[in-house]
Structure formats: C-alpha cells, structure tokens
Amino acid sequence: MSRDISQYIKILSDWDVSNKSLVELPFDKNSVNKVVCPYCSRHEFSDIKEGLTELCPVCTYAVRKLALDIKVSKFKELWLIHCMKPKVNYIFWVLRDYVNREGDVEKILRDSIIDENGFLAQSYTDKQLQFYRLKIFEYFLRCYNSKGAYLAIKGSGLSGFTWINLLNLRLLGSIMFGTCFIVSVPDLWRYANSQSLLFHFVMAAIFSLLTFGYFSLEIYKTTGEVMVHRAREITLRGLLYALLLSAPVSLFIGQPYMNNSQEANSLKLTWFVAFASLLIGIFIQVIWEEKNVTEAL
Ligand SMILES: [Zn+2]
After folding, report:
1. 64 CA distance to ligand 1 centroid (A)?
2. In whole numbers, what is the pLDDT of the chain averaged over residues?
3. Domain boundaries defined on the chain
4. Which residues of 255-294 are buried (b: 16+ CB within 10 A; e: fewer)?
C-alpha cells in the first residue's frame, strides 16, 4: 500500500459515466485492449459482486463514486455492504483522507432506507429493509456510535431483543466475568483492603486509562479516526456497570474474605473490584472473542 493513490483518486473523482449500464474505469487500456485498474490490474469492473473483499483502495473508491455520486443503484447496495465489513478495515484506513466510511453508511441509511422514496426502500420489502437496518445497527455498535445505532432501528419494528443491545450487554457480561475472576482470588481482596487510599487512586487511574486506551484503539481500527468522546462515553458506561456490580459483591463477601484481625473497608473494596473487573473483563473478552465489547450479542 505504499504507492501513492492520490493521483488515481483525483482521476476517479472527476470521472463521469454517461452510460450507466456500461461501467468502465477511467484508466488506460492494457495490451489486450481492456481497461484496467492501475493499482491492482483488475478489469471487467462491472462484475464486482457482493462478498468480494479483495478490492484494492482505487477500485474501492471507484465503487463509492458509482454508488454515491453517479448513483448506479446496484453499486449503492454494494457500497453499503462493503462499508460494514470488518475485514476491509485496512482499506478504509488507506482511504481515510478521501472517504468517511461511517458518514456514508449513515447517508445510505437516511436517503435509501429510512426515506420511503429512497432506492432501497422502494425496491425492497419491509423484511429486507429490516435486514439492512440490523446490519447497520450492528456496524454502528461496533463503531461505538450509539446515536447511529439508535437511528438504524428507530421505527423499524425490530424486536425488543434488538433494542436491549443498545445497553452494551456484551460489555456488562465481560465485567461480570471480570468480577467472577476477582471473587475467585481471596488473597487479592485482603491485599486491596490493606492498601492506602493513594494506592487505590493510582490503581484506578492506571486501570481506567488502560481501558480508555483499549476503547480508543478499537474505535480507531474501525473508523480510522481518533474519537475521544466515544471512548470516554463507553469507559464511563463500563465503570457505572462495574460499580453497580462491585458494590453488592463487596458488601456480601468483603468481610468473610478477611483474616480474623482484618476489618473489611467496603468503600475501598467496591472501588478496587470495580476498576479491576472492568479491565480484567475486557482483557478476557479480547482473548476469547473476535468481537469487541460493544457489539450486539
Ligand atoms: Zn484496483
């Protein structure tokens, strides 16, 4: 991906296709008189089908141009599907200066699915539209875009089971795993209980920074952008879940876990268990699952 793609992107952005049924890339022909992509040497551009993930950045940009600027119907659907594939994250990263991936998905959602005059809304049944809404919902959850996710299923008639995914249940589940892990190590409780307040503040700062860093990285991987507000929002939600879980757990098993001479400090223990559960939970999730913690169940 080291070659400069900007010159090809420039040619493509000036490209206008007059005959929409005969799509030819605006590049030179090869020795057998076929138009080829100068980046990947693909020809027969109109044969691009759903499920094709090996598009090069230049071909990807061409599909976008056909879908959104030239408005060739079949490419619009293709572009939507392509935008939502996790496998092509790196292509969108290469194209980050030219393509707003999330913005495109939201545009197609608004103009073609929600809008009753939109292309997809007109040619598809409600059930098919629900399928696309659900896919977009899942994609936005993966991008930590809760507003977009809400928009995708608003008025869709999708069941309550879909809606509860807005609460990031996978995140809650991860934190529960984290709490279970900590509950299984009584020594950790005695150690935390005997530490100073300063220790607990430093530990909380380090653990929440690591959590925030992980979320920031996941968001960057999917969107190609640094989005501090989204990472902050999901970190705070995680902390809220963790505190709600750790408070009763610490109250019930804090004292029984102590030595005879030790008195449990519920506040310290709640604090410690919450931050540690969040970090350990996310760590377990990363190891066991391909999906990130905000994705639908
Ligand atoms: Zn290409």
Report:
1. 13
2. 87
3. 1-99, 100-165, 168-288
4. eebbeeeeebbeebbbbbbbbbbbbbbbbbbeeeeebbbb
